[in-house]
Amino acid sequence: MVSQYGIKLAAYLISSSYGDFCSKVCECLLSRGTLTLAQIIRFTELSRENVINCLRVLIHQNCVQAFSIQQEVAFGEAPKIVTQYMALFDNTIHKMRFPKFMQIVSEELGKDCLGIFEGLLQHGRLSLNQIIDRNMQTPDNSDVHAVRESFSRLLNARFVERCPAPEPFLAPPEEETPAKKRGRWTSLDLWDLIGLAPILHIAEAPKTIEQRALATASPMESIRFLMEIDTLRGTSEEKGMESHDIATLEEKWKQDFSDAELSSSGKKKEILWRVNFEEFVRRLRHKACIEYVRIRLSDQAGIVLSAILELTRSSETRLKTDKSASMSINDIYDEVIKKDGGLGMDLERVRASLVQLGCQIPTTGIDETYSIDLKNIIELAQNEEVESVVLKRYGREAYRIFRLLSKSGRLLETDKISDTTFVEKKDTLKILYKLWKDGYLHMEKVSVNGPKQTLFLLWEVDKESLWVRVLDEMYHAALNLRLRITYEQDQEKEILQLPTEKLVGELEKRYKRLRKVRIILESSLMNLDDALMLFHDF
Amino acid sequence: MAFRGRGRGRGGFGGGGFRAAKQEPFELYPELEDLGTAEYSNRNLQLIKWYSNLQKYWNSSPYYYEGGSERTRNVQKPDVERLSDKDLQVANSKPPLWHFIKLDIDHIPAELARGEKKEKRGIKRVRWNQESDLHKLDLFEKLEQKHQGEEGKENKENEDQEEDDEKNEEEAEEEFSDEGDYEQNEYFDDDEDDYNMGDDNDDEPFF
């Protein structure tokens, strides 16, 4: 379940982009979970037509995913199949970051691809024909081949993917012998307890019904970034294509596709494409790691890390990979030289940076490969973020206490804390109480029955719940920033409608102030968004 | 939300005193003193512009769903209808959703899908660039009032070219319907007068 302010932020983003009706439907799905159409109509109290149109818009804009499921019925009745709708919270919040995605595309692929990409952001989903059609109406339109070329560049960089199935059917979980089933579920629970996420493979059954729906809906990896077969004849831009196999592969794929892709009326259905958010979040994650390493360790470590991540990017299967794939020292070195500032580095310097990044140089060394622990870097960055919040809100002593507790990772007693951090005992107690009241610490009381009954207070940082709380506060802050920006714009909306010549004297001052305020608020929001991603997506 | 606001106004109450709480007016958007003097950089200017453009596009697109049926909603007609109001309506009415969203069963769940009949009616021209239409509208109003050159607000450089292109295409489209109205008048045959003329001639004696 999403936290309270997360829901409010998502609802606000939808309402400012798509109107209040869509926002109501979205909020209903986020707060009440997955619902059927009838339930949505009942809870939102909107008319059936409005709800249907809102769902159409939301699905088209990738904020909602539908799936059909067999409903349990009373004994003797035929099984009923119902369609349920789930809200995609992550994709909704991504709307705040669309400019950052655009910046990545613009820097890497250029203006033409950016034009197509912007269209996909505006519309959510487009078919190739629609993209070509839209391009013809832009002022600097290019011919069809250039558009196809730009589109396949976007595909190859994995910035664009096929849309998921509109209504996948979730088969009811298979019948298993009770013992076996119990065994499987306990092993999954155990993994969660240890904190490792089970690897979500389509073949295995993920835990919740929503996860199953998403896994079933998403296209197979083999066709996710594949254009239609017709283009295979002329061009061979798709990945992994060997020319001598094209003919046989074509036949095989035509077979597979003819089963999957033919619509009910028998003609080949048009494939819709959408932005591949996973790739962008991955890139932003890498950017954040590199930036953190560059600031905390050294520029060179940053260069080495960015080289490694660039090489291993395409082999990352999941978004939140813990470790990067292993690369040999020579590959790393080759990539490092290509980067700015990396030209002057030699193998020794590269090794030194790798040590800084936490790798160990293998002593027996024919096969020198290294992999970086990304999860660790992210955790360090998260800790720093929270510690800086504590420093700002509660002062330096609280910061020391919090750091001690967060690093030790276990329960500590009040006196011990006071001694280690050189803070007076009663101040320590006050600070600890304050932190505990605001939810930063977890407290336990232990009473010892000895000659004298003493009550000990033990404290620790509970990262799980604290991270959730911090994230919620950030959503709240982001929502406030967005509201304030809208408010400031509304205040000065008469000024915005005047042409620039009329802005003299008093009006000009107001316009300049508005511009400054807007830039400050929006920049703050972008920085806050980096922190949001750090805690939620990375 | 309102309740929360009132609660805040009585903020000092629970403080553990029996003194009367100081009633502070609740400001939803308190004035921030440092706002105008904080430091900032222009690194993010391009990002801000992009976001602003995206927002504008969504607000003017059919995705901004305002309820009602998919027929274009009736704009409030002013008391005296002017000819220039026709421009207003053409620019303000958004294209229907099905121009952009494929409503067939392959792309949307069955219970939300709509039959293929309506799509076959034919999409004359899918307007992908509504924002420039609206900009053009403001433009025309300013031209009427001020006889000044074209200015956009934030997208000056980009919009000029788009506007010219769109203007030509829109005019070409509109001319069609205008012609129709005027043509009707031209071909309208007023038979009555001819009849009267004929009768008069018959009544008068022939000399």
UniProtKB/TrEMBL annotation, chain A:
Keywords, alphabetical: DNA-directed RNA polymerase, Nucleus, Transcription
InterPro entries in alphabetical order: POLR3C_WHD (IPR055207), RNA_pol_III_RPC82-rel_HTH (IPR013197), RNA_pol_III_Rpc82_C (IPR008806), RPC3 (IPR039748), WH-like_DNA-bd_sf (IPR036388), WH_DNA-bd_sf (IPR036390)
Ranges where the RNA polymerase III subunit RPC82-related helix-turn-helix domain occurs: 9-67
Domain of life: Eukaryota
Residue intervals of the DNA-directed RNA polymerase III subunit RPC3 winged-helix domain: 386-457
GO molecular function terms attached to this record: single-stranded DNA binding
Pfam family, one: HTH_9
Cell compartments where the protein resides: Nucleus
RNA polymerase III Rpc82 C -terminal domain sequence ranges: 236-347
Family, per entry: Belongs to the eukaryotic RPC3/POLR3C RNA polymerase subunit family. Belongs to the RNA polymerase beta chain family.
Main function: DNA-dependent RNA polymerase catalyzes the transcription of DNA into RNA using the four ribonucleoside triphosphates as substrates. Specific core component of RNA polymerase III which synthesizes small RNAs, such as 5S rRNA and tRNAs.
Subunit structure: Component of the RNA polymerase III (Pol III) complex consisting of 17 subunits.
UniProt xrefs under PANTHER family: DNA-DIRECTED RNA POLYMERASE III SUBUNIT RPC3, RNA POLYMERASE III DNA DIRECTED -RELATED
Protein name in UniProt: DNA-directed RNA polymerase III subunit RPC3
Protein source organism: Abeliophyllum distichum
TrEMBL record, chain B:
Key words, A-Z: Nucleus
Stretch list, region Disordered: 1-20, 140-207
Subcellular location: Nucleus
Domain of life: Eukaryota
Keyword Transcription regulation: no
Biased composition (Acidic residues): 159-207
Biased composition (Basic and acidic residues): 140-158
GO biological process, one term: transcription by RNA polymerase III
A Gene Ontology cellular-component term: RNA polymerase III complex
Similarity comment: family membership: Belongs to the eukaryotic RPC7 RNA polymerase subunit family.
Functional description taken from the UniProt entry: DNA-dependent RNA polymerase catalyzes the transcription of DNA into RNA using the four ribonucleoside triphosphates as substrates. Specific peripheric component of RNA polymerase III which synthesizes small RNAs, such as 5S rRNA and tRNAs.
Subunit and interaction comment: Component of the RNA polymerase III (Pol III) complex.
PANTHER family with a match to the protein in the record: DNA-DIRECTED RNA POLYMERASE III, DNA-DIRECTED RNA POLYMERASE III SUBUNIT
Protein name, per record: DNA-directed RNA polymerase III subunit
